[in-house]
Amino acid sequence: MRKRYCMGLMLALAIIMALCYLYVLQNNSVILEMADGVPVLRVSTQQSNNLITLWEDEEDGKSYFFLPSCIDHHKVTVGTDSVQFAGETYEKGDTFIWEEDTEHIVSIADDAYGVGHYEITFMKSENVPAVFINTESGDLSYLHEDKANYEPGDICVVRSDGVTEYQNVLPRISGRGNSTWGYEKKPYSIKLAADYPLCGLDKGDTFRLLALWREGSKMDNKIAMDLAEALGLSYTAQGTWVDLYMNGEYRGIYLLTESVSVGKGRVDIYSLEAENRQYNPDIDNAVPYAEEDNKGYLLESGETIDGGYLIEKDHPKHYEVEANGFLSSSGDHFTINAPKHASKEQVAYIQEYVGNVDTLAQNGDSAVWEYLDLDSFVRRFLVDEIALNTDTGLTSMYFYKDKGDDKLYSGPAWDYDNAFGERNSGEGLYVNYFETIVNNNERLGSAIDWYQKLYDTPEMQERVAEEYEKVLPFFEELIATGIDEYADWIGASVKMDRVLWEDKNIKGDSSGKYADYYANVRYTKYFIAQRLNYLCQRWEVFHEPFTVPSTGQMHKVTFSVYEGVVDTMEVMDGMELWELPEYDASKYQGWEYEYSREKYSPYIPIYEDMGFYNAKWE
Fold first, then answer.
1. Average pLDDT over residues 350-370
2. Residues with Cβ < 8 Å from 2, sequence gap 6 or more?
3. What is the pTM of this model?
């Protein structure tokens, strides 16, 4: 009897939950209105209400509504006086049905703004949550003037199932990033009113919105985070894709990530900043100091000096604008990210500590492992080496040291938008899957060389091969199904993003190598497979060769110069192209890809019909 009662209760609860879910979906509505003379869609759910502004392409005059995944239908209710849609007239309160990826001729009549005529295409996301952010000014101009500028506002996160996960004031949104800040699609940092596990990520109040501008497959950072977690690298930031709307404007697909910062759910070490604030109540007005090789703040020192520190190997020009930091004995620049306000004594301590590590590393002394955590350095090295990350040793390279712990740890892993063969720079070193960051950094002469020195120690040599072999099952699954599943998951969002940004996102050596998104996805699989095959050989790890993806179809490759087409050829999908038509080097500059404007590399395979162009010297 009791068992039947429990089963009945569970069934009743299940029915109630299903009805509630259907109720939420059925209460999703889309209303076409006018706001300041511009058509908008009011997307309403049972729990939230958000506006989406019509985006107009200035070049061809066409317009788009980019809808979030929470909308499970194609119905639009007229909220203006009347709408003429597909040759029929609809009055206020009527509903019309739109078709996906179809250009609709629409006339909108509104007493306040008159009649407007538009060519509108409706596009809709799938699967990923939508993040709606409204700034206090209602405009993005101030935020985009300088990444240091910030504004308050409000935020609403709606899951793909229509449930409003989070809705609150937003104390702060600002820009972030270094080189990525220079692109039109901006990355952001947001600070919530209180700690919250936003979109299933670890609980915290600070999150990042990565623009994925340089990522052809939109997966590089995500794969690197997954890899770091698979390797067991502590405090690895996690991320999930979202569609971002700012003041009603669709901004594209972003990777929402946890921040690299000290705190519970982040880099969980002792907070020197909290202690410094206890001893310095007016710390936000503390006087900064700067000497030749270090800088920080003039503070009353507390009881703790040995940790916790979160430091970052930084580019010299990025270091210049930071408040805390120091130079190593070799001249490398380190920013102190935590504590935010570092006292003179604290800066001196961590500078001396890193200086000691640097001296031992430069001398190839195995005693360096008394000061460095071998596990974290090996695992972080593997993330960087497998990804062939161009930023390794140059910037965004984090280390931390905790209170009461004598060792410096490598990590968290961060910043992989120039990885996995994405960047055809540095003389093509980073698309060449036979290369190594150990050699590249030394060759380019612009990076911390600890990896070069530590890699030669027997302790690290032995562990690298062991840890690499352990992570191969992760890649077996990733290449077999994982990357394709990710592509299917975000495909609809990427499609919208490419309509919005594609013409502006062809920047040469870092914008995706192929016009077709799924060609970029195949290239990501290709690069990882080739990279792993090489590393297995290099580290003498036996494994069945990873398969390079190919559809088996043939692609037409066309070669053109200023005067016109000079040659064509047929190439199998996934094949490399090692022989190109000869040319007069005194007359022409060299072959480059017509779509991405990258210089030719034999390590970039053919995954679609492609054109090469050879420009004349000026």
1. 93
2. none
3. 0.92
| Both structure tokens of 210 | 């990565």
The answer to whether the Cα torsion of 286, 287, 290, 291 is positive or negative is negative
Contact partners, residue 260, CB within 8 Å, separation at least 6: 237, 266, 267, 310, 337, 398, 412, 414
3-state secondary structure 546-594: CCCCCCCCEEEEEEEECCEEEEEEEEECCECCCCCCCCCCCCEEEEEEC
CA distances from 489 to 25, 125, 127, 354 (A): 20, 10, 6, 43
Q: Cα separation of 204 and 216, whole Å?
A: 29
Closest CA to 85 of 72, 93, 95: 95
From its phi and psi, is residue 133 left (phi > 0), alpha (psi between -120 and 50) or beta? beta
**Segment (H or E) for 41:** strand 38-44
Q: pLDDT tens for residues 206-259?
A: 999 999 998 999 999 999 999 999 999 999 999 999 999 999 999 999 999 999
pLDDT bin (cut points 50, 70, 90) of residue 9 is: low
* Angstrom distances, CA of residue 524 to CA of 420, 458, 483: 7, 32, 8
The answer to whether 589 and 616 are in contact (CB under 8 A) is yes
CA–CA–CA angle 456, 461, 463 (5° rounding): 145
Q: What are phi and psi of 586, to 5 degrees?
A: -80, -15
Instruction: Give kind and range of the element (H or E) at residue 466.
Output: helix 458-477
User: What is d(CA 225, CA 238) in angstroms, rounded to the nearest whole number?
Assistant: 6
* pLDDT at 19 (0 to 100): 42
| CA distance from start to end of the chain | 90
- The H-assigned helical ranges of 282-421 are 316-319, 344-362, 374-387
Phi first, then psi, for residue 612 (nearest 5°) are -115, 145
Among 592, 413, 610, CA closest to 523: 610
DSSP per-residue string spanning 339-357: SSS-BHHHHHHHHHHHHHH
Q: Would you say residue 518 has pLDDT above 60?
A: yes
**Mean pLDDT computed over every residue of the chain:** 91
Cross-sheet strand order for the sheet of 75-78: 49-53, 38-44, 29-35, 75-78, 95-97
pLDDT at 598: 87
Integer angstrom CA distances of residue 65 from 331, 395, 545: 52, 38, 45
Q: Which of 317-331, 498-512, 536-550, 578-592 comes out lowest in average pLDDT?
A: 498-512
Residue 17 confidence (pLDDT): 45
* Crossing angle between the packed helical segments 374-387 and 437-444, to the nearest 10 degrees: 80
Question: Do β-strands 325-327 and 287-290 pair in parallel, antiparallel, or remain unpaired?
Answer: unpaired
Q: Give the model's pLDDT for residue 445.
A: 56
Q: 397, 204, 406: which is closest to 315 by C-alpha? A: 397
3-state secondary structure 514-537: CCCHHHHHHHHHHHHHHHHHHHHH
pLDDT digit string (tens) for 119-164? Answer: 999 999 999 999 999 999 999 999 999 999 999 999 999 999 999 9
Angle at alpha carbon of residue 136, lines to 155 and 339, rounded to 5° = 70
Question: What secondary structure letter does DSSP report for 597?
Answer: -
Which residue matches tokens 């700690």? 195
DSSP state of 603: T
Cβ density class 193-227: b for 16+ within 10 Å, e for less:
eeebebbebbebbbbbbbbbbbbbbbbbbbbbbbb
